[in-house]
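Budget justification aside, the reviewers requested a transparent look at the raw inputs and outputs of the sequence design task funded under Objective 1. We therefore reproduce one unedited record. The lines immediately below are the structure tokens for a 245-residue chain.
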């Protein structure tokens, strides 16, 4: 039996090593975050926690009154139920405390269940992605996706879509909508007089990391803009991103 468990353990380690060699670090991150992710959460949240001492004192007072009242009532009820058995033991304070703690635990479990249901509903109804790939090319704000979106926008302009309606037209496509919501699509005219489209992320942090892309006619191709070049382009008066319709 022990040898079978050892073989299983070695097999799991071997499979994880294969995934790690393929760059799939999530096989190590997922169990680590499930076990210790709450520590980083506390590190972020605890400095922002403020204590309402008045509410804490009120809670302790109510808990003390409830504990004392419950104990007195249960002790009286216990005596009434065991009136014909004088040898029965008296109601113990430990039992009252246990019942009170059980009630607090049930209340906390109910609050946690409601919170879980609320967050699940929020995640299911929201448009934000639940997971993000560690490969930049697979991200909506990644260079590869931006290139594809730029080419789609170029095709729309070729089809006669006005510049002012370009973003709205792209958003109307269900397959493009999640990507367009994460990107700015800015058509403009280059110094050479050619129509050019610049695509970059709406998130400033992603924009600093990935930069953007610029595309124009077929002969122009698709050009990658690093964050510095994109920032210079945005600083120019003509580089105004079209608002989201």
């Amino acid at each position: 039996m022990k040898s079978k468990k050892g073989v299983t353990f070695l097999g799991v380690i071997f499979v994880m090593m294969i995934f790690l060699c393929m760059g799939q670090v999530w096989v190590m991150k997922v169990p680590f975050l499930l076990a210790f992710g709450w520590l980083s959460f506390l590190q972020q949240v605890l400095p922002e926690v403020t204590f309402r001492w008045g509410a804490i004192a009120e809670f302790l007072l109510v808990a003390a009154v409830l504990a004392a009242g419950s104990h007195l009532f249960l002790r009286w009820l216990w005596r009434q139920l065991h009136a014909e058995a004088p040898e029965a033991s008296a109601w113990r304070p430990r039992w009252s405390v246990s019942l009170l703690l059980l009630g607090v635990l049930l209340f906390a479990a109910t609050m946690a269940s409601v919170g879980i249901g609320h967050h699940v509903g929020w995640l299911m109804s929201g448009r934000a992605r639940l997971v993000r790939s560690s490969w930049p090319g697979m991200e909506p704000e990644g260079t590869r996706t931006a290139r594809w979106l730029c080419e789609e926008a170029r095709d729309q302009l070729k089809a006669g879509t006005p510049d002012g309606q370009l973003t709205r037209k792209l958003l109307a496509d269900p397959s493009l909508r999640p990507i367009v919501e994460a990107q700015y699509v800015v058509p403009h005219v280059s110094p050479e007089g050619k129509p050019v489209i610049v695509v970059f992320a709406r998130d400033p942090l992603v924009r600093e990391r990935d930069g953007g892309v610029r595309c124009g006619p077929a002969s122009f191709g698709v050009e990658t803009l690093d964050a510095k070049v994109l920032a210079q382009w945005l600083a120019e008066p003509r580089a105004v991103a079209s608002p989201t319709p």
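Residues 212 and 225 are 5 Å apart (CA to CA). The chain has a mean pLDDT of 81. Computational costs for records of this kind are itemized in the attached budget.
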